[in-house]
Amino acid sequence: MAIRKIVTQGDDRLSKKCRQVTDFNKRLHDLLDDMKETLEEAQGVGLAAPQVGILRRVVVIVDDEDNMLELVNPEILEQSGEQTGPEGCLSVPGKWGMVTRPDFVRIQYQDRYGEWFEADGEGLMARCFCHEIEHLDGHLYVEHIDHFMTEEELEAFYEEEEARGEER
Ligand code: ZN
Question: pTM higher than 0.90 for the full model?
Answer without folding.
Answer: yes
